[in-house]
């Protein structure tokens, strides 16, 4: 008769949704901390104002946002831009926020090597991208890839997204998503 208890089913569903929400909150609050490093007042810092708006859209409590802004002064966190080459020579830009650069770079290198991608020297991939007003990397051109490589690229992007320090992953691969 296991699995028939209604509370157990609700509890399992709630655990899954709470884990997803916690992961999103962590990434958004890290972005708020990074944005607050230069100027903690959102009236004078458009980047901070934009990240706070994103956090509010995701229903992050105001108290947590304020703590993240205060933490920006206390805990030194860094924003990393990591460049790499993926399957079929596709370009990747990986944004991460961390309190330990060495740990995060080592973790990202491990994920890249496990997924047949290569760590690139700084500046070797950025030429493929333009940066928009919000700090997102838009590809200057899309690179066509084989269906096999698309699966590998999607697996790589998913593995990178699983890392808590990685906030965004950008690629110039022309991905076709089937529904």
Question: What is the gist of this entry?
Answer:
Helix content is 48%, strand content 17%.
Describe the structure.
- The protein is globular.
- It has helices at 6-36, 46-57, 62-74, 101-114, 147-162, and strands at 78-85, 91-98, 118-119, 129-131, 137-139, 166-171.
- It has a four-stranded antiparallel β-sheet. Strands 4-5 form a two-stranded antiparallel sheet.
- The protein folds into two domains: 6-74, Arc Repressor Mutant, subunit A (Orthogonal Bundle); 78-171, YebC, transcriptional regulation domain (Alpha-Beta Plaits), CATH 3.30.70.
- A hairpin with a 5-residue loop joins strand 1 and strand 2 (91-98).
- The protein contains five helices and six strands; from the N terminus they run αααββαβββαβ.
- The mean pLDDT is 86.
- Helix content is 48%, strand content 17%.
- It has 179 residues and is of the alpha+beta class.
